[in-house]
Design brief:
heterodimer; A: Rossmann fold; Rossmann fold; six-stranded parallel sheet; B: alpha+beta; Alpha-Beta Plaits; 2 domains; four-stranded antiparallel sheet; 4 helices; 39% strand
């Protein structure tokens, strides 16, 4: 069947299983949008307020489904507006395909209207990118882009398509969904070496990251931990892979990690890292990290082995296969002393929590807000966040029951990520979606409220409003002598009226009771809602490892 | 410990691939001493030869980051006894007093004079980079007008190819 390039693009997206795509039309993608119109029964397009929101939506779509997210933008500013969204996906290894239009080949390189070298711009923030100048190569390039995006360590791929290629015609024949490129299997010697190290360990700690979460390995990891009497901690990106109900799961470790998880990792004699990259936010001062601990690292990416920390054994292979074979070969074990150590840390963490609760008094605190959310939300509820203090509270305090229920920008730390991501996540899953945000982050991309209203996407936005850029303020308080340079927002924005102006529902809560009533109502309303909650500007995210510090320097309380 | 080493990279012979490789070096902060690129026995691949000095960590990271690039087919650190050659064109001042010495040096180093004017000589020399370095030092007192070096190309000894490895 002969199709235009634009029709080939959309047909290939449909062929590869894209159900919903996000984007924004423009001069050099009119043909693609014409094709979207033609195929509107087979593929849903969500028009956002800004291309950045569309990129984050495609990212959110991917985070909750594991599928490849797709975003479409026009040339020039449309393409550059995707950059933050693509970089966010890159740093968190999220599979995404971005399609941009460009000026016709004859005008490329002439600084034509809305012409930009987007493949050049996105070179360092994509797993790979393509400039397609022949319609014959279009369909296969898109298929290859999907394959690259989801294979091995996933990531974003951009395809730039000049307008004349969209207009040209070529034969199109539907093919099947491309398979992931198989990863090499770990060698028997590697498996045996890992089994030996794990068998010898007295204090084993399994450390899971986005790589394990992305493969849905939570259940397997838990089973192994039970078998060999290990504890499990996760990175930020590993959150929600394992239910917080599990006593073996100690939660997030690192700069703002759970006390017990960070301390247990410090005391472990062996860390089995699965799909983790030992980022600086996780390790603190890397020269002091895990000095007396052996590390086994299983990852699909060669370059992650020995990049940030030196490991005893690095296995670059099909992660799940390697894990399964190691787990099958391991004998059951018991480590009573290790249980005592970890239980003591857990008890200490409980104590710290109790102190924090007691210190709060009647004030509406993040802890109380998350208490209410955890009580009311369902197992399927997706929690999306922006970036800052509220994000760390969400990471620490949200009770997750199921995998793929957390959408948050970890590596890049993109303020303004949340609303777009929440929209994408809700569209993809149809599940209840809550966005936790702050007044700083929300201010960056709140234009997407218009999108939520237009499509009636029932995102419940919980705005932790403290009138300041809280995370930077916390650093200024602790490390910059309280010099609050440009972190006091003092904006006078009425978020209830703002929500109403967009056509959403606005609510306000200043006490726990008010918040519970508001959230209860919002959660079942079936409409986008903004709940403006007032929290104290000097509420800290604790525990905290100070910058350049290590786990020994953990700050668990601050005298105000 | 810092060591000099040479890495050979087979990349797809496509538009923009060299940019992908060099941009990765910039992004990751690798310092390259020399880089050459050219055709190979297989028309679909180009071979990039990179020489750099660094510790084992830098070498391992560089190789792994290269292997991640989609257009990169093969990355190998060459054996230290590989055959390494570089070509240099060097223009030096020509005068009747210095000419005999320069010509002797050209002969000893098995270089070639490829251009001759009343006040300049252009010499072509190939060899191991250390030989080229020595020749540059030797020419310095006579007055180097201009020079350019290609950077190292290298092949391992024996009948094997890197692509088969």
């Amino acid at each position: 069947m002969k199709l235009t390039g634009a029709e080939i693009i959309i047909s290939t997206l449909i062929e590869q299983g894209a159900t919903d795509v996000f984007g924004y039309p423009g001069g050099q993608v009119i043909n693609i949008y014409d094709a979207l119109y033609k195929y509107r029964d087979k593929i849903n397009h969500v028009l956002t307020a800004h291309e950045q929101g569309a990129a984050h939506a495609a990212d959110g779509y991917s985070r909750v489904t594991g599928k490849v997210g797709v975003v479409i933008a026009t040339s020039g500013p449309g393409a550059t507006n995707l950059v933050t969204g693509i970089a966010t996906a890159m740093l968190d290894s999220i599979p995404m395909v971005a399609i941009t239009g460009n000026v016709p080949c004859s005008l490329v390189g002439k600084d034509s209207f809305q012409e930009i070298d987007i493949t050049g711009i996105t070179l360092p923030i994509t797993k790979h990118n393509f400039f397609v100048n022949k319609v014959e190569e279009l369909a296969d390039t898109i298929r290859l882009a999907f394959q690259i995006a989801k294979s091995g360590r996933p990531g974003p791929v951009l395809i730039d398509v000049p307008k004349d290629v969209q207009v040209a015609t070529y034969e199109f024949e539907e093919q099947s969904v491309v398979e992931k490129t198989p990863m090499p299997k770990a060698s028997e010697a590697e498996i045996d070496a890992a089994v030996k190290l794990l068998s010898e360990a007295k204090r084993p700690y399994i450390y899971i990251g986005g790589g394990a979460a992305g493969l849905g390995m939570g259940g397997k990891v838990l089973a192994l931990a039970d078998k060999i009497d290990a504890y499990i901690g996760c990175t930020f990106m590993g959150l929600s892979a394992i239910s917080d109900d599990e006593p073996r799961f100690l939660g997030m470790q690192g700069m703002h990690g759970h006390y017990a998880s960070s301390m247990a990792q410090k005391d472990a004699d062996l860390i089995l890292g699965i799909g983790v990259r030992f980022s600086d936010r996780a390790t603190g001062n890397v020269s002091k990290y895990a000095k007396n601990t052996k590390i086994i690292q299983i990852d699909p990416d060669f370059a992650e082995i020995n990049k940030n920390v030196k490991v005893e054994l690095g296995i670059v292979a099909d992660v799940e296969d390697a894990f399964d074979r190691i787990a099958a070969k391991l004998e059951a074990a018991k480590h009573d002393e290790w249980n005592d150590i970890v239980n003591a840390y857990k008890a200490k963490e409980k104590e710290l929590d109790a102190e924090a609760i007691a210190a709060a008094g009647d004030a509406l605190t993040p802890r109380k807000i998350f208490g209410v959310i955890n009580k009311i939300k369902t197992e399927d509820t997706i929690i999306a966040t922006d970036v800052g203090q509220h994000q760390m509270w969400a990471a620490q305090l949200t009770h997750f029951d199921k995998p793929r229920r957390f959408a948050s920008s970890g590596g890049l730390g993109t303020m303004g990520f949340g609303l777009g991501a929440a929209i994408g996540a809700q569209v993809a899953s149809g599940d209840p979606t809550v966005l936790i945000t702050g007044d700083g982050s929300f201010g960056m991309n709140l234009n997407e409220l218009a999108t939520a209203v237009k499509y009636n996407i029932p995102v419940v936005i919980v705005l932790l409003n403290n009138g300041v850029l809280g995370m930077v303020r916390q650093w200024q308080t602790l490390f910059f002598g309280g010099r609050y340079s440009n972190t006091v927002l003092d904006r006078q924005t009425d978020f209830v009226k703002l929500a109403e102006a967009f056509g959403a529902v606005g609510m306000r809560a200043t006490t726990e009771k008010e918040f519970e009533d508001a959230f209860n109502k919002a959660f079942t309303l079936g409409r986008p809602v903004v709940i403006d909650t007032a929290i104290d500007k000097d509420e800290f995210v604790l525990p905290m490892l100070p910058p350049g510090g290590s786990i020994e320097d953990i700050i668990t309380a601050v005298q105000k | 410990m810092n060591n000099n080493f040479v890495i050979a990279v087979y990349v797809e012979n496509k538009f923009g691939v060299l940019t992908r490789v060099t941009s990765m070096f910039t992004r990751r902060g690798f310092n390259i001493d020399a880089l050459t690129v050219g055709e190979t026995e297989c028309p679909e691949y180009s071979r990039i030869t990179i020489s750099l000095s660094g510790d084992g960590y830098a070498r391992e990271q560089l190789i792994n980051q290269l292997r991640k690039l989609y257009n990169v087919k093969k990355v190998e650190v060459l054996d230290s006894d590989s055959i390494k050659r570089e070509l240099m064109l060097i223009k030096v001042k020509n005068s009747s007093e210095t000419r005999p010495d320069i010509m002797s040096a050209v002969e000893v180093y098995r270089a070639k004079v490829i251009d001759y004017t009343t006040d300049s000589l252009c010499i072509e020399i190939t060899g191991d980079p250390t030989k080229i370095d020595a020749f540059v030092r030797l020419m310095q007192p006579y007055g180097i007008i201009e020079m350019c070096r290609t950077g190292v190309v290298a092949l391992e000894r024996g009948n094997s190819t890197l692509l088969d490895k």
